[in-house]
Amino acid sequence: MTKIYGEGDTQVRALQDVSFSVSKGEFLLVIGASGSGKSTLLNMIGLLDRPTNGNVIIDGINTSTLSDNQISSFRNRKLGFIFQSANLLSDLTVLENVTLPRQIMGNNGTAISDAKKLLTTVGLEPQMYKRANKISGGQAQRAAIARGLANSPSIVLADEPTGNLDSVTAETVVQLMKSMSRKLGQTFIVVTHDHRQFGDVDRVITTKDGRAFEGKESSKIEVTA
Amino acid sequence: MEYRFNLAKRMLFNKKASLIGAVLAVTIGILVIHVNFVIFQGLFDAIVRDLTDYRFGNIQVTDEEDYIDKSDISLINWFERIPYVEAATPRLSTTASINITKNGERIEETRVPVVGVDPLRDIRASTVHKTVDEGQFVYSRNSIVLGSNVARDLGGAQVGDNVKLKIVDRYGQDQLKRFIVTGIARSPGGQGFDYSVIMHIDTLRDLMDRDGYTSSIMVKLNDPTKAIEVKEFFLRSFPNEDFIAETIEEAAEQQLAGFRSGIAMINMIGYFGMMSSAFAVVTIQMMLVNSKTREIGVMRAIGAKRKDILIIFLFQGLIIGTIGASVGTVAGLGYTIYAQETKMSWNNSLPLEVTIQWDKILQTALTAFSLAVIASLYPSYRATKLLPVEAMRTV
Question: What is the pTM assigned to this prediction?
Fold first, then answer.
């Protein structure tokens, strides 16, 4: 796929002829310098933005054919998001934030008990009734992971999940994501500028100038169709 | 639905300044309508009340000719047999010249309205006797009550003074008669007989040489809502007479018409005020939407549809409308009850006739509520137009 922002002289090719596939259960790192296109790539995979050319196919469904409502439902059922700055809703408690994706889905039955289990797993049981803006950055990021997993999504997309954290907390969050990936068998696509924090992962893709390459070095094979 | 309402409520209540601002806007809109209603409708109703009590009654009977020549006693008895009628009384009107000599100086006033009353019947059908604040009401055939303005124009005539009246009788002859001032009438707001003199109806008939004649019959009802029914019954009962029977609204139409259009205009200004409040709600909600851009992006990212976002912000409009309409109605009702209990007036002027009209209160509250909800439509729509990826870039 290709993503172009702007027109004419101000045109920017954020992604150019990028094509790759990810297997179920893979833990994939997307690395690259600032402005290399890694966040744009994640936005395309997360259906938060549409490519200028090309398609994103998830579970065999060509998402470019979906309407806005269908894309919302698709995001809700299939994708989980973990953002750089947690992005919890400050008006809600930690528990309510984690319950929210299930409530949006309309599946309220066990939403609260499942959310409590997830929060216990990420070590936030004591904080679950606190307002989201009353917990620390590390706790917020753990809550964001719990929210990203609340709907049992097929793919979890994380954009610089450790970007705002100190090294100790970042390490905790990385280990948490890796253990959740192993435990739940979900696909993780993590965008980061510092792959060393993640140690060994199943696969690494490097972005540079809007192009994507397999492996940690830009000299490796370009992953285009 | 539950999470959307919960989220709308939390977002709103966590922005207390915005919530208070929006609620105040709706509240003030309602309060303006209530204050307008209390003052202007209260003034209108007070004028109607005083015109009813002093001049017209609930029904006024006159004749197409200048005078009713049928026996006033028989007409009054006819009316008083109707259960809805509390009392009826005859009135005779003309104008006169009055003079008084005070400290050797003769002061004369011309074209002063004169009202002849039957003192015994009048106090049952009218409250004009209550406006006599010095001395007492007409009690004999040579007593006269001066309106306060007439007394003032006569150099400060007082109870006990002698005044001379000159009235032109039916044959064009001047008739003179001396009276003792027994009272001075002064009504708050001047809707009474402040500019007239009041005397015994039989004395006036003698002076005018119109024995048995009456200008009007003033009918007071114990249930004013039956005025049209009683009026029509009267007209049906005397088909061969040239009577004119009018309800207070018809009889006082000239005095009230201008006032009515004034009230309509004031009400319109009030509703414009309410629309300004709606614009304030739009502005405040736009600020709310702008301050929640990132949250909207997050919600969209985790699967909320445009419809969900729309509902969340519409719920905020509903909450603002509900609280604003409730607070405004309570405040307005409080003001109305205060005005009613204290018989509000300014500088001893006409005391307002304040009534609580639940239908109007409900209508105002519903209008304010609806405007608040309508005002939230545009901000809600704007919120749905935010693209998740754009919204999430906002910090």
Answer: 0.79
